[in-house]
Amino acid sequence: MNTTVEQLRREVELQLNRIGFSETPARLYDPVRYMLALGGKRMRPVLVLLANRMFGGNEQQAMPAALAVEVFHNFTLLHDDIMDKAPLRRGQATVHEKWNPDIAILSGDAMFVKSCQLMMASPSAAMPAVMNLFLQTALEVCEGQQLDMDFEHSAEVRIEEYLDMIRLKTAVLLGASLGIGAALAGASAEATGHVYDFGVNLGVAFQLQDDILDVYGDADKFGKQVGGDILANKKTFLLLTALEKAEGTLRDQLLYWLQEPASDEKVQGVKAVYAGLKVREAALTKMESLYQAALDHLEALPLSAEQTQPLRELAAMLMAREN
Amino acid sequence: MNTTVEQLRREVELQLNRIGFSETPARLYDPVRYMLALGGKRMRPVLVLLANRMFGGNEQQAMPAALAVEVFHNFTLLHDDIMDKAPLRRGQATVHEKWNPDIAILSGDAMFVKSCQLMMASPSAAMPAVMNLFLQTALEVCEGQQLDMDFEHSAEVRIEEYLDMIRLKTAVLLGASLGIGAALAGASAEATGHVYDFGVNLGVAFQLQDDILDVYGDADKFGKQVGGDILANKKTFLLLTALEKAEGTLRDQLLYWLQEPASDEKVQGVKAVYAGLKVREAALTKMESLYQAALDHLEALPLSAEQTQPLRELAAMLMAREN
Question: How far is residue B158's CA from residue A129's CA, in Å, rounded to a whole number?
Answer without folding.
Answer: 45
